[in-house]
Task: inverse folding
C-alpha cells in the first residue's frame, strides 16, 4: 500500500529549485533510502515531505491527504523526524529528550501521563537505549544521542518516520545498530521508514526501496534489487562500474597500474593478498580465476586486469593463452596453494608454460615486500 | 512523570517556597535599611497598623523604600525572564536584553520623548507613554536583529550585531543629550545609567500589571518553549507554530525589557545570569521550572543588588549595573570556560 505519494513535486529554497518533477511513492511499512551525492538535494526532499520547508510545486500526499492540509498538530501524529541538527541542551536526560516526542499527545503544560511514560520507555527500549535514560543528553556520544533521537521520533507514535542521515558521524558498530533499529521499526512495528544515507553499500543491504537523486532529478527509484539491476547506482556516484559493486556491496580502492605481480589461482590467503598489494600500491593482475570466487569480485572491483572462467567450469585453452600473454609482462608470478582438480587444472598448464619462458614461480609468503 | 521528573518537580516546589521566603526577608531588610534605619519590626507594624507609627516613617516606607523594593523585585524578575526567553529564541546561552542592545533601544526611545520632545501632545512622564516608547525602541532593535539573523543565520554574528546596535542606540542618545538643556538632564542621566530610585506609585502600578500578566503568559507557553529547545525544525515537526512562537517571544521579551528600562534605565547582566543560576541549581532545561525559577531568583537578585548599590558607598549610590555586573560577569566567564563548544559559533 502506498503511504506517501509525491506528484510532480519541485523542492528547493526561496523558489530556487533543487530537485525538480519528483514522482515517487513510498510504501507502507517499508524502509526506503534516498541516496545521492553530497548536495544533490536528498535532505531537501526529506524536509519537504515533512513540510518543514515549503515545496515549490506539486503535491505531497500522506495517506491520500495533502500534507499542507493537515493541522500542524495532526501532521505531528502522522509523521516524526530525526534530523542532523544537534541541539545544545545542558539539563535534559535521555528520557527527557525522548519524552519530547509525546508533545503532540500531551495537554497544555505537557505533563506526561503514566501511559505516556510507558510509551516513551518502550520506544527507548526498542532503540536499545534503556541504559541511557538517566544520562544527560549532552554527555552522550554521537551514536547514543542518535539512538535517543530515534526513540524520540518513535515516541511520537506516528506511522511515518523520516530520518536525515541517521548514520553520519557514527562508527561502524553504531551505524549497524542504528540501521538494525530502523529495520526492526519497519518490520516489527510496521512503520514506514524513509531515510537518507551516505553509505550505498549499507543501504542496499537493509533498505527495501531505493530512491536515487542526482543533478536536480530522480535518477531511479523502486525496489532495491531492481534499482541495482539498472546499474544506475554506479552512475549516481560516478563510479563507472569499478570501486563499488552494488551486487555484492563491495567497496575497494583502485589498483595500481604498474605491472608488478601476476597471481595464478586463488587460495585462503588471496583476499588479504589482494588488499595488501592494493594498500602498498603494487600493481597486479590475476588469472585464471572462476567467476564464483569472491576474490574475482574483489579484484574486479579494484579494477585489476583479470582472466576468468565461468563458474564451476574447466579453464579453456583460450583462457590459458590469454593469461599467459598477460603474465609474461609482469615482474613476479605468484602461485596459489589450492589443490588442483579438473576445473582449475588449466592453471598448472599456465604455470608450466611460464616456467618454460624462464619465469620464477613464488608463493606469496616468499615475497620480500 | 518518571521518577526523575517527579523528584525534580518536588524539589522545585521546595526551592520555590524557600525562595519566596528569602524574597520576603530580603525585601523586609531592604525596606528597613537606608539613610534612616527603621527596625524590621517597625516595618511590619507599618503594614499592619500604620496609625501607630510616626507618620514620617510611614511616609519613608510607603513612598520611598517600598516603591524601590517592589520595583527592584519586579525589575529583576522581568529582566531574568526576558533573558531566558531570548536565550531560548536565539539558542544561545549569553543572549540577554542588555547585551543584545534591546535595553538600549528602549532607552533611546524614552530619551527621544523626554529630551527630544517627541511626545505627540502627551505628557512625556506619563508612565504608560514611557513604557510604550521603551517598547517601541526595544522591539525595533529586536526586529532589526531578526532581519539580520535571517540574512546571517549565524548566532555568533547575531550577538555582535546586537552589541553594535546597542552601541549605536547609546551613541544616538549621547547626541541627543548634547543638545538638551541642563535642567532636564540630571534626573535623566541618573535614570539612563540605571537606578530603581526614581519610582512613583503610578509607575509601580504599570510595572506590576505588565510584569504579572507577562509572567503568566510566558508560563503558559512553557510547553512550546521546551519544544523550541530541540531547534525550530524539530519544534515544527511536533506541531508547534514556530512563527507564532517567534513573535510571542519577541513581544514578551520586548515588553518585559521595555517596562523595566522605561522606569529604571539600563540594567546589565541580570537577564543573562539569572536563567543560568536557575539552570545550574535545578540541572534542567525545562521551561516549566526555569520560568518560575528565573522570576523568583531574578526578584531576589534585584532586591539584594539594589540594597547593595545604595548602601555600600552611602551616602553615595552605585549604579545598579555596577553591582549586577559583579554577579553576572563571573557567571558568563564560567559558562564560556565550561562550554566544550564555543558560544560564538
Result:
Amino acid at each position: 500500500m502506498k503511504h506517501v505519494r509525491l506528484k510532480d513535486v519541485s523542492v528547493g529554497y526561496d523558489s530556487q529549485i533543487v530537485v525538480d518533477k519528483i514522482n515517487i511513492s513510498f510504501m507502507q511499512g517499508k524502509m526506503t533510502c534516498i541516496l545521492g551525492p553530497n548536495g544533490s538535494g536528498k535532505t531537501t526532499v526529506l524536509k519537504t515531505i515533512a513540510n518543514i520547508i515549503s515545496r515549490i510545486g506539486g503535491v505531497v500526499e500522506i495517506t491520500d491527504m495533502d500534507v499542507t492540509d493537515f493541522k500542524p498538530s495532526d501532521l505531528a501524529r502522522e509523521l516524526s523526524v530525526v534530523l542532523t541538527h544537534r541541539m545544545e541542551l545542558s539539563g535534559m536526560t535521555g528520557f527527557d529528550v525522548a519524552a519530547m516526542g509525546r508533545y503532540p499527545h500531551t495537554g497544555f503544560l505537557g505533563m506526561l501521563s503514566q501511559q505516556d511514560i510507558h510509551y516513551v520507555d518502550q520506544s527507548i527500549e526498542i532503540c536499545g537505549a534503556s541504559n541511557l535514560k538517566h544520562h544527560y543528553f549532552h554527555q552522550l556520544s554521537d551514536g547514543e544521542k542518535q539512538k535517543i533521537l530515534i526513540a524520540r521520533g518513535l515516541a511520537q507514535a506516528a506511522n511515518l518516520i523520516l530520518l536525515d542521515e541517521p548514520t553520519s558521524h557514527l562508527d561502524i558498530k553504531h551505524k549497524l545498530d542504528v540501521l538494525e533499529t530502523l529495520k526492526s521499526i519497519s518490520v516489527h512495528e510496521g512503520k514506514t521508514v524513509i531515510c537518507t544515507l551516505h553509505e550505498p553499500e549499507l543501504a542496499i543491504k537493509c533498505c527495501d526501496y531505493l530512491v536515487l537523486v542526482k543533478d536536480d532529478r530522480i535518477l531511479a527509484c523502486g525496489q532495491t534489487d531492481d534499482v541495482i539491476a539498472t546499474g544506475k547506482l554506479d552512475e549516481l556516484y560516478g563510479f563507472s562500474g569499478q570501486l563499488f559493486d552494488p551486487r555484492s556491496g563491495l567497496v575497494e580502492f583502485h589498483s595500481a597500474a604498474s605491472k608488478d605481480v601476476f597471481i595464478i589461482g586463488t587460495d585462503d590467503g588471496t583476499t588479504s593478498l589482494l588488499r595488501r598489494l592494493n594498500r602498498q600500491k603494487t600493481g597486479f593482475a590475476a588469472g585464471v580465476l572462476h567467476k564464483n570466487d569472491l576474490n574475482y569480485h574483489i579484484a574486479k572491483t579494484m579494477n585489476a586486469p583479470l582472466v576468468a572462467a565461468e563458474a564451476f567450469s574447466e579453464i579453456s585453452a583460450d583462457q590459458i593463452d590469454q593469461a599467459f600473454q598477460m603474465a609474461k609482462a609482469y615482474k613476479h608470478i605468484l602461485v596459489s596453494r589450492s589443490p588442483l582438480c579438473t576445473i582449475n587444472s588449466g592453471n598448472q598448464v599456465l604455470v608450466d608454460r611460464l616456467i618454460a619462458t624462464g619465469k620464477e614461480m613464488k608463493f606469496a609468503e616468499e615475497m620480500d615486500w | 512523570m518518571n521518577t526523575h521528573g517527579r523528584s525534580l518537580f518536588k524539589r522545585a516546589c521546595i526551592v520555590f517556597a524557600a525562595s519566596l521566603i528569602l524574597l520576603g526577608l530580603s525585601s523586609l531588610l531592604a525596606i528597613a535599611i537606608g539613610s534612616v534605619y527603621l527596625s524590621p519590626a517597625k516595618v511590619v507594624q507599618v503594614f499592619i497598623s500604620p496609625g501607630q507609627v510616626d507618620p514620617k516613617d510611614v511616609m519613608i516606607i510607603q513612598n520611598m523604600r517600598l516603591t524601590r523594593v517592589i520595583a527592584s523585585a519586579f525589575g529583576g524578575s522581568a529582566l531574568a525572564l526576558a533573558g531566558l526567553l531570548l536565550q531560548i529564541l536565539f539558542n544561545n546561552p549569553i543572549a540577554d536584553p542588555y547585551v543584545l542592545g534591546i535595553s538600549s533601544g528602549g532607552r533611546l526611545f524614552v530619551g527621544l520623548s523626554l529630551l527630544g520632545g517627541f511626545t505627540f501632545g502627551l505628557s512625556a512622564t506619563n508612565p504608560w507613554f514611557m513604557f510604550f516608547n521603551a517598547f517601541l525602541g526595544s522591539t525595533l532593535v529586536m526586529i532589526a536583529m531578526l532581519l539580520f539573523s535571517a540574512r546571517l543565520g549565524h548566532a555568533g554574528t547575531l550577538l555582535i550585531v546586537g552589541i553594535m546596535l546597542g552601541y549605536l542606540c547609546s551613541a544616538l542618545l549621547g547626541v541627543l543629550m548634547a543638545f538638551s538643556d541642563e535642567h532636564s538632564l540630571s534626573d535623566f542621566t541618573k535614570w539612563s545609567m540605571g537606578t530603581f530610585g526614581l519610582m512613583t506609585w503610578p509607575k509601580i502600578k504599570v510595572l506590576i500589571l505588565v510584569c504579572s500578566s507577562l509572567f503568566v503568559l510566558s508560563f503558559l507557553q512553557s510547553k512550546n518553549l521546551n519544544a523550541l529547545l530541540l531547534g525550530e525544525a524539530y519544534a515544527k515537526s511536533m506541531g508547534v507554530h514556530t512563527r507564532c512562537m517567534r513573535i510571542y517571544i519577541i513581544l514578551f521579551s520586548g515588553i518585559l525589557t521595555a517596562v523595566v528600562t522605561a522606569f529604571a534605565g539600563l540594567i546589565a547582566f541580570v537577564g543573562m545570569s539569572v536563567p543560568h543560576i536557575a539552570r545550574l541549581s535545578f540541572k534542567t532545561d525545562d521551561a516549566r521550572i526555569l520560568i518560575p525559577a528565573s522570576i523568583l531568583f531574578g526578584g531576589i537578585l534585584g532586591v539584594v543588588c539594589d540594597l547593595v548599590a545604595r548602601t555600600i558607598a552611602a551616602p553615595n549610590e552605585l549604579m545598579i549595573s555596577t553591582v549586577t555586573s559583579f554577579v553576572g560577569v563571573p557567571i558568563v566567564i564560567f559558562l564560556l570556560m565550561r562550554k566544550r563548544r564555543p558560544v560564538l559559533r
User: Anything to note?
Assistant: The first helix of chain A runs from residue 42 to 49.
